[in-house]
Amino acid sequence: MRIGELVRRTGVSERLLRYYEEQGLLHPSRLPSGYREYTEAHVETVRRIRCLLAAGLSTSTIATVLPCLEARGSGWRLHVRTWWGGSAGNANASTRRCAI
């Protein structure tokens, strides 16, 4: 899918998606024409990024933990709570707000 479809599916602006790419959070492939090409996995990744940002993590922290969350699949929220450590209450409240 192209960036416009990702915008529609995630509610995140094109500019913000490009910023996530600049920060190393998104890695779309490129078509020969230079257009970015996204997959279903990118939709989920953007949702995770938004949730982690809402939980108070910086983009640099997200860049560190995101590969671990992606590797763990659907159980990622539990791992976020575990990683959060002593602030589990905050993590629980923040991750509950995520509709993913």
Question: Your description of this structure?
Answer:
64% of the residues lie in helices and 4% in strands. It has 100 residues and is mainly alpha-helical. It has a single domain, classed as Multidrug-efflux Transporter Regulator, Chain: A, Domain 2 (Orthogonal Bundle). A two-stranded antiparallel ribbon has the order 1-2. Helix 3 packs across helix 4. It is globular and about 35 Å long. The chain starts with a helix and ends with a helix.
Set down the secondary structure blueprint:
Layout lengths: L2 H8 L3 H9 L6 E2 L5 E2 L2 H15 L4 H14 L3 H9 L3 H9 L4
Antiparallel strand pairs: 1-2
Helix pairs in contact: 3-4, 4-5, 5-6
How many strand units? 2
CATH class: Mainly Alpha
Distance between the termini: 20 Å
Major sheet characteristics? 2 strands, antiparallel
Q: Which architecture would the CATH scheme give at its second level?
A: Orthogonal Bundle
In CATH terms, what is the fold-level topology? Answer: Multidrug-efflux Transporter Regulator, Chain: A, Domain 2
Q: List the secondary-structure elements in sequence, H or E.
A: HHEEHHHH
Strand order of the largest sheet: 1-2
Number of domains: 1
- What spatial form do the alpha-carbon principal axes imply? globular
Q: How many DSSP helices? A: 6
Structural class: mainly alpha
Q: Ranges with pLDDT <50 over ≥5 residues? A: none
- What average pLDDT do the residues reach? 80
What percentage of the residues does DSSP assign to strands (E)? under 5%
The residue fraction in helices comes out at: 55-70%
| CA-atom Rg in angstroms | 14 Å
